[in-house]
Predict the 3D structure of the following.
Amino acid sequence: MVTKTKKMFKIIRIIVLISFLSFSKGVISQNNTSQLNATHRTYEIWDDQPAPNRGKDYSRIQARGYPTDSDWEAHSYPIGNGYMGANIFGRTDMERIQITDKTLTNGAPYGHGGLTNFGEVFLEFDHYEVKNYKRSLNLNEAILNVSYEYEGVKYTREYLANYPQNVIAIKLKASKKAKLSLTVSAVVPYLRSADAYNHSGETIENIAKYANTTAQDNLITFAGNVPSFSLNFEGQVKIINEGGKLIANNENGSNEIRIIDANSATILISTGTNYELNEDIFLQDSTELKLNSKIFPHKKVTEIIENASLLGYKKLKESHLKDYQNLFSRVNLEVSPSVPNIPTKTLVENYKQDASDIYLEELMFHFGRYLLIASSRKGTLPSTLQGVWSQYHVTPWSGGYWHNINVQMNYWGAFNTNLAETFTGYQEYFNAFTPKTYQHANTYIKKWHPSAFVDSEKGNGWAIGTGSNAYHVNGSSGHSGPGTGGFTTKLFWDRFEFTQDTTYLREQAYPALLGMSTFLSKTLLATEDGKLLVDRSASPEQRHNGVHYMTIGTTFDQGFVWETYNDLLKSAKILGTNDPFLEIVRNQIDKLDPIIIGESGQIKEYREEKKYGDIGDPKHRHISHLCGLYPGTLIDSKKPEWMEAASTVLDFRGNKTTGWAMAHRMNIRARTKEAEKAYEVYSEFLRERTSPNLWTVHPPFQIDGNLGTMAGVAEMLIQSHEGFIELLPALPKAWQTGSFDRLVARGNFEVSLRWKNSKISSVKILSKSGGKCSIKLPNTKGVQLKDRMGKQIVYKITDEDIIEFNTKKSGKYFITIK
């Protein structure tokens, strides 16, 4: 009995000891992380009224004569899953759901193909004089809600764009049984009518589109073709009612389904074309032969709708939330002390009058991440100039990919805001068009640098011009130099630096860098003083004396030769590659002379300029000669005279410009560490380029402004391009207290931070790949570094107040500053 009692007490002591140790471990962990696990706010874009319904505004013609539907552009709310997008208006009389599919194009503009409106779905409720109306887009969930009361019944709608099942799903409910009645119809816009062509400036043959719409049982089908591209398309709208009945009607061309006295209903929308992303699309020059006209998307679209129907709305919603929140919820950012309870349009209008409420600055960052997820996913075409949304017949600038800054800007924030997966869409697109760019390089070098030409398939590298889209990629441009390709490969190197994915580096980034370096090396002209300058060089879109100015050795081109060479050499070292061509790069890189300071204290845009503004538009939207500062790394704090000269250029250039160009200025100011000037341009951008629905305009709407400023906010809070992590490098006074979670630094470090009165209080580092971590701090006195168990970690302090310490893969490290 005594023995059993002793054993029992021994067991109890062990249990107590284990409990105490577990509690102590929890206390240590809590002490380290209590300041670093804030509850995420719910971010909504909302209004207390539906989007207005004023129709197209032909008095405001933008971008080569495209009529602007200001209600679509400024007041509709966008949802998307990368494949397709929808704009929701939230109306109670006749709801409009405008659908875009990135693979549906016509021949406009330029005959190479351009994004075009896929279809319009209408829900006719005939509800007028409603009460307690609200429509809201929840960014945390990517779900759009509409709710209101009408004749004593509360009506609700939920809209989502599901990526895993590639379907748009809508749930409609009424608070009372048998009270849900509406008519569902679908229209393919811009068929052969006068309205389709009056304002497009294109020939009818290029933009002609044909379609038929039918309604049968619970399914509306709209299908057709675009002859100029042998493009077949189909959309299906399926209705699943709970209670009540459905009546399909095709009389007098109505093509509608009536929902009568239902309790609730689910509407599913799917789209498809015979487009298939592959190298043949780009290698085939004839537009009529790019696609197989005998392939129709009916089976594919039908399977999507049927599979979604079998899952049901509840499981579709669960699938959507799991997928989307895995991406969106990674990052939290708070700089505003509170969330104002006012409609977003009022928030925007108030900010234009008085920018003291900084919540809009925070909300726009999160909206940018939402838009990137919605418009670019694996297996989809990348985010276009308009993301995945276009109500146009002829989309401005084709809704394509413009490689002299716009498409790069779309992805600048993908890596540091923890959305690297969204870049996969562009990588897949690049892989498909790359074979064509090797042909372009052969053509270019043979024509302009015949002495350097090598008669082999890839011997001259690859070359890309400014414009491209789902069907075509340009080989050269009259207004942007060869450095355009280096502008593009910078994205590939950045993806590696942020993810540390050596497989990606070996299979994707290194070959791209090697091919581009090969091409650029053949464009260099040796001068008498030993320099190597790009021959036939241009600073994107600049004009002098009314024409695009071609010269030798612009800062844009010289800078991106240097960036590409530098990234290639770093890649080769990591991979242990010893390609013979690398010796040529090593010999050439120091002869590029990429940065020259002029008489006005400016970084010269052209070697032959003396004072600022001698050549070109002094207020030009592009600041291409500063790309070596951002997104490049040629100019950094180790070269203060270059940093100062870059700042001087921005002072001369000014902030009054297009939306995306303001975003670039914001990122440059962040890199120069001029916090208040970076904040000034961001604030000005929000006041002058932001619509009530938070879409931003060039004008017209372009998504690069949204995504570029998103990157800019992150760049103001964390930088890592100089070999160390710098925290709050451009923190403005307006953001004196705040926090962020899981922004990413190069080296694949997830960083979480708290600051108060502009001083850092605590930092958390998650080392996802292991390796040495270097962090620059305002001062290193009183710094404590611990691991997740509360154990002190030894670190080294450099002369520049940088602490360095070794990390383990998946290790968590906590820094407190007293």
User: Anything to note?
Assistant: The CA atoms of residues 416 and 744 lie 4 Å apart. Confidence is low (pLDDT under 50) at residues 1-38, 57-65, 193-199. The chain has three domains: 45-329, 401-653, 739-817.
